[in-house]
Amino acid sequence: MSYIKCRDLKLGYDGEAVTEGLSFDVDEGDYLCIIGENGAGKSTLMKALMGLNKPMDGQIEFGDGITRQEIGYLPQNKDFQRDFPASVNEIVLSGTLSKLGWRPFYGRAERQVAENNMKKMEVWELRKKCYRELSGGQQQRVLLARALCAAGKLLLLDEPVTGLDYKVTCEFYGLLSELNRSGVSIVMVSHDLEEAIGHANKILQIGREQVFFGDKDDYLKSESWKSFHNHHVSHVHAGEASQCTPAGHISGHGAAKRAEEPVKHEAYDAGYKGGGGE
After folding, report:
1. What pTM value is reported for the model?
2. List of residues 6+ apart from 228 with CB closer than 8 A
3. Which residues contact 20 (CB under 8 A, 6 or more apart)?
4. Which of 42, 92, 231, 276 is least surrounded by CB atoms within 10 angstroms?
5. Which residues contact 59 (CB under 8 A, 6 or more apart)?
């Protein structure tokens, strides 16, 4: 069953469209990677899915009992977020706010959910530490634990590895793959082409309009992928390599083999790989 159905979406700001004609589904168990050039509307799409931006046209429908309040959302990591003066426990626990209803205080159930997710993300031992004292990788684990407190079935992530080094990036992708194998559907925006696509099973490429939506295997055989990938090959630094993507992932191996055996592949330069925005 589809968790999200989008039909003929048109998105933009101040009456001016940035992308249109977007039609795609997110089904149970999916790992959808959304890619496109800067300014293509990827982050705008994520905000629309979360109800933070209203589409200019088209429909967004939720199925299987899912509401926006039950979607875990990890937005782009801005500098001000890294300096937030709260404890790890407070930040993760705040992910359960949508479950409180009219109650003014957290209860035993919310605290147990927060504890379970801190343990799952391996930050339980850090629960009393101030968030701003953590490393970038630890902070992302904390934010993912927070998102999981809201998410029962679906996670939306917007550039979750921006600013993280290769080792931490690899670990983070491994965490997402484990969550996906455990039954959590994932929708992720990323500039980190080969890594992100390597872990996904579906691809949505957008520009001024939808370029491609479908299975990863079909995408990797398409002219859309060849053109998009070749456009960015010029950003590759000779001799640089990432250890994250398992052999064959980019060529379409199944989800069960995600994040298991490391191999080298080309990495994009810092200007492309680390760029924020859409």
Report:
1. 0.79
2. 35, 193, 205, 211
3. 8, 9, 10, 11, 56, 57, 58, 208, 209
4. 231
5. 5, 6, 7, 8, 9
